[in-house]
Amino acid sequence: MTKDNLPAPGAPDIEIARAATMRPILDLAKDRLGVPPEALIPYGHHKAKVSLDHISSLKDKKSGKLVLMTAVTPTPAGEGKTTTSVGLTDGLNKIGQNAMVCLREPSLGPCFGMKGGAAGGGRAQVIPMEDINLHFNGDFHAITSAHSLLAALVDNHIHWGNEQNIDPRRVNWRRVVDMNDRALRNIVVGLGGPAHGVPRESGFDITVASEIMAIFCLATDLKDLQRRLGDIIIARRYDKTPVTARDIGADGAMAVLLKDALQPNLVQTIEHNPAFIHGGPFANIAHGCNSVMATQTALKLADIVVTEAGFGADLGAEKFLDIKCRQSGLRPDVVVLVCTVRALKMQGGIAKSDLGTPDAEAVERGSVNLIRHIENLKKYGVTPVVAINHFVKDSDDEIGVVQRICAEQGVTPAIAKHWAKGGEGAIELAKAVVEQLEKPSPDVATIYPDDIPLKKKIETIAGEVYRAERVEFHAGAARSLKEFEDLGYGNLPVCIAKTQYSFSTDAKLVGAPTGHTLEVREARLSAGAGFIVAICGDIMVMPGLPRKPAALEIGLDETGQVVGLA
Amino acid sequence: MTKDNLPAPGAPDIEIARAATMRPILDLAKDRLGVPPEALIPYGHHKAKVSLDHISSLKDKKSGKLVLMTAVTPTPAGEGKTTTSVGLTDGLNKIGQNAMVCLREPSLGPCFGMKGGAAGGGRAQVIPMEDINLHFNGDFHAITSAHSLLAALVDNHIHWGNEQNIDPRRVNWRRVVDMNDRALRNIVVGLGGPAHGVPRESGFDITVASEIMAIFCLATDLKDLQRRLGDIIIARRYDKTPVTARDIGADGAMAVLLKDALQPNLVQTIEHNPAFIHGGPFANIAHGCNSVMATQTALKLADIVVTEAGFGADLGAEKFLDIKCRQSGLRPDVVVLVCTVRALKMQGGIAKSDLGTPDAEAVERGSVNLIRHIENLKKYGVTPVVAINHFVKDSDDEIGVVQRICAEQGVTPAIAKHWAKGGEGAIELAKAVVEQLEKPSPDVATIYPDDIPLKKKIETIAGEVYRAERVEFHAGAARSLKEFEDLGYGNLPVCIAKTQYSFSTDAKLVGAPTGHTLEVREARLSAGAGFIVAICGDIMVMPGLPRKPAALEIGLDETGQVVGLA
Question: Is the ipTM of this complex over 0.90?
Answer without folding.
Answer: yes
